[in-house]
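Researcher: Structure prediction, please.
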Amino acid sequence: MQKNIVITIARQYGSGGKTIGQMLAKQMGIPAYDKELMRMASDDSGINEGLFANADEKVKNSIFRIAKNVYSGELIPPESGEFTSLDNLFNYQAKIIRQLAQEESCVIIGRCADYVLQEYDNVLSVFVHAPHDFCMEQAAKKHSLSERELEKLIAKTDKQRADYYKYHTGREWTDARNYDLCLDSSKLGFERCVEEIIAYMKVRFA
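Model: Predicted structure follows.
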């Protein structure tokens, strides 16, 4: 196999994609990165980590209806008024993602990492999805909410992820053509999803 391999995981809310990514990382003995990327980007840029978290969690949908700014790899300098813009916050996270892909094997969850690393030969991109009922069941294990509230949470989270992805990549988040491997976690179960990713890696990077 290649010296270092990066697995990116995009996932519908409630599909268990994050859990699968963490299980995969543990089995392979490599780190998994999710929100840690915000701290690393904050350390690298000097921008307050809270701004990264705010942009990550409270993206205004109106922004996405107006325009999109597809990631190109450029960083906006500190002297610019756009230094702490949504675009530059993403740019610094992307910089960290690219550095990690060059330096180590790891699992990266979310962050449009499949797009940021699309030119890298050592990257395997995965999309984890599941039917609505399964996502509801999984979400109910984490949140004490009514069925209606859970439905709203799932719909809102998935819309934010889709809008965020579209804004920074110009692509549709759920388009299977964006990924090497798409897995239905409800049919396979989490452990089997991990096994399938590892099996695919062995073929792909043999």
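Model: The chain has a mean pLDDT of 90.
Researcher: Thanks, that helps.
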